[in-house]
């Protein structure tokens, strides 16, 4: 049960978006300062999380598209 929740593409997408928004906001807010901080690492991690979800989303969209197409006989 826990393994199913942890590997959920919806959870990965949601957490990646939340991390991207919060770290992006922090990075944008401190754009004038030239220092390397934790929010830069969180920003990179969120981008990696979102990139991992893309193939699963494309596969799901492909399955939806195939199910909607009329059957050719």
CA radius of gyration is 18 Å
How many structural domains? 1
Strand-pairing-aware structural class: mainly alpha
**Separation of termini?**
42 Å
Residues in β-strands, percent = under 5%
What share of the residues lie within helices?
A: over 70%
Main sheet: strands, sense, barrel: none
Number of helices: 3
Order of helices and strands: HHH
Uncertain stretches = none
In total, the number of strands is 0
Mean pLDDT: 86
Judging from the principal axes of the Cα atoms, what is the shape? elongated
Structural account:
This protein is mostly helical. It has one domain. Helices cover 78% and strands 0% of the residues. The protein is built from 3 helices and no strands. The termini are far apart.
Short key terms for the protein model shown above:
mainly alpha, elongated, 78% helix, 73 residues, 3 helices
Briefly say what this structure is:
This protein is 78% helix and 0% strand.
List the helices and strands and how they pair.
Blueprint: H1 2-6, H2 9-29, H3 38-68
Helix pairs in contact: 2-3
């Amino acid at each position: 049960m826990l393994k199913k929740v942890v590997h959920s593409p919806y959870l990965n997408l949601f957490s990646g978006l939340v991390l991207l928004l919060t770290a992006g906001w922090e990075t944008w807010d401190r754009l004038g300062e030239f220092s390397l901080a934790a929010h830069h690492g969180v920003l990179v991690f969120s981008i990696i999380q979102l990139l991992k979800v893309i193939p699963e989303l494309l596969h799901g969209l492909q399955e939806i598209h195939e199910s909607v197409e009329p059957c050719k006989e």
